Amino acid sequence: MPNDARPTPARPAAALTQLPELRTMLSRSPAVLSALVLGPCAIAQAQSPQEAQLPPIVITAERETDQVRKALTAEQAVTPGAVTLVDGEALRQRNVTSLADMLRYVPGLWAASGSTGDSSFLSSRGSNLDATNYDGNGIKLLQDGLPVTAADGNNHNRDVDPLSARYAIVARGANALTYGASTLGGAIDFITPTARDGAPNELLLNGGSHGQRQARITLGTVAGAFDALVTAEGKRSDGYRDHHRQERSGLYANAGWQLGDAVRTRFYATAIDNDQQLPGALTRDEWRANPRQAQAAALAGDYQYNVKTWRLANKTTWDIDANSSLTAGLSYEEQQLYHPIVYAPPFFSLLIDTEQRNLGGTLRYQRRIGEHDLLVGLNAGLTTVKGGNYGYEPGGAATLSTQVDNRADSLELFVMDRWQFAADWTAVYGAQAVSSRREIRNTTVSSGALRNPEDGYHSINPRVGLIHQLAPTVQLFANLSRLYEAPTLYELEDDVRGDQSTLEAMKGTVLEVGTRGTHDAGRSQWHWDVAVYYARLRDEILSRAPVPGVSLSTNVDGTVHAGVEALLGASLAIDDAGAHRVEPLLNLTVNHFRFKGDADYGNNRLPAAPTYAVRGELLYRHASGFFAGPTFDLVGRRYADFANTYTVDRYTLWGLRAGLTRDHWELYAEARNLADRNYVSLFSVQDRAESNAAILTPGEPRSVYVGARFKF
């Protein structure tokens, strides 16, 4: 890390709110306060009466504002497990058009994009390793602490824009209890920039290979107690395959009022229109012969992935006194999906045309009592999905085959205490109580038959963890937690039994240990964040595809999800003045995902996730603002089926990026896959894949992108 990005010293919890700079943070920035509510500062950080530094929490060596750095340090320092934070400023120095780009340097996540922008496949600690590419679950997504994930845990076609985040907090696995989640993958909270927290007026432009062009403009104002920020974007791409075009426009806005010294409120509004062609999957022979071609059925059926979304939200915070606060939030979203996905006439065609509505609310109370920091939270959600499945002719008539009227609700109550019981030790313990319900109402139009599986899911999920401040800048941590995840509506719809039966919720236990810290060697600094985890699951819900676009879901008896997650980096001075620096960054993930004595699959590996993934870069930086260096990806082999008969080979990619930063403008250039390697980005998972199965999605060929940022 450069000298201007060193972690800021922190002080004991009792004295924290007396710091003038943190009083300013609390009064000016709801986004920062949200992060501080999630992790009260400086429990177990004082090794002695003197001040102690916390481990670094940025995943690149890019610049941050002091406010963001303090808020992010507070979040990680009081979590006894893996938490990574992504700085939105750093994303503006490379080509970022998808969540896969944004989460490149987050260990434990497997993110891949084989289509344009909004079609990233996302798996955290082995979540979502099945056939439902269109229905990402297992990770709770939030914006400013308010839900983006639907009440049933579904992230179907969600439009989270990475460049609209001031920063993102990635809490993997049970470490997401702070957000009320007990899912296998954890949670990601995208924090919105505001005019009051220093977000600049800016213009972003980028373009490059495959017809990519994107423009974003952000304007903000502060007038006394009022502030507002609005961003408008337009994005187009022809794609690197046939039938691969994307057109997207978006509007993101927020406005806040300071209602006196103790109360502030903020409103958020989002509107997105995304139209996207899908090129379909290829057989292995087709992929080898011409990876840029589209699947014949995708062309004939005009496969698309079109989503119109609008969302309104509000969050209000009341600082009751110096030791307690209350935050309440409410969000509402409507999402229209038009999704032709299967075309195999005269036998079968499928067009999904539905409207999803999501209502979510949150209430969080935090109270500091002596050496205890208590957090009590309540999340509530309601989701409805209405519309239908159609048989269709491209450009012609669509015939309703199944009428859909589904509903899910969820209530999560969570309590957590962070207790600094000794100078260098903090116990973090709590529990989540969840009560949710799912109801499927699918009516077959031809016969009038109603399929109506419905069930309730209830559980109490405890967690206990420990943080030891081994040195002023080094922490050890461990936690033991229960995982619990109810099925999504789509999983219940696709139950392999096809009757009124319902799936069981996934249950399990995870043990995690790790360390994070920094080492300052004068003009050079090292930082690390390493976690090892082992989870045993029962009734994990997995889906397999007999044909592309169709999935069948079932519970499996037992699975193991284990792995090593490491983020290692440094900023090394190569001259006496420190003007010339070399900055390596390495994201290493090793996965061990297996069935455990399954009646059908024995101890086979779970498909989709690679055995290992290494992503990194080695940048030269100059004090003038110039940087340049190579990037690399090393990805291990994967299985494409549960039977482990179809192997997708490992691959290595090389790239290069460079840029120049100034006070009011920045430039970057990025080249990817310089060797033009033909590789598989993602694929559809089957039970037993035949050698000629059309399941492969090619990765991006050699590509070059350039971008500019102007602040005014």
TrEMBL record:
InterPro entries referenced in this protein's UniProt entry, alphabetically = Beta-barrel_TonB (IPR000531), Beta-barrel_TonB_sf (IPR036942), Plug_dom (IPR012910), Plug_dom_sf (IPR037066), TonB-dep_rcpt-like (IPR039426)
Q: Which PROSITE patterns match?
A: TONB_DEPENDENT_REC_3
Q: Where is the TonB-dependent receptor-like beta-barrel domain?
A: 275-674
Keyword Transport present in the record's keywords: the answer is yes
Q: Per UniProt, what is the membrane topology?
A: Multi-pass membrane protein
Instruction: Give compartment(s).
Output: Cell outer membrane
**Which family, according to the similarity comment?**
Belongs to the TonB-dependent receptor family.
Q: What is this protein called?
A: Putative outer membrane receptor for iron transport
Per the UniProt record, the lineage of the source organism begins with: Bacteria, Pseudomonadati, Pseudomonadota, Betaproteobacteria, Burkholderiales
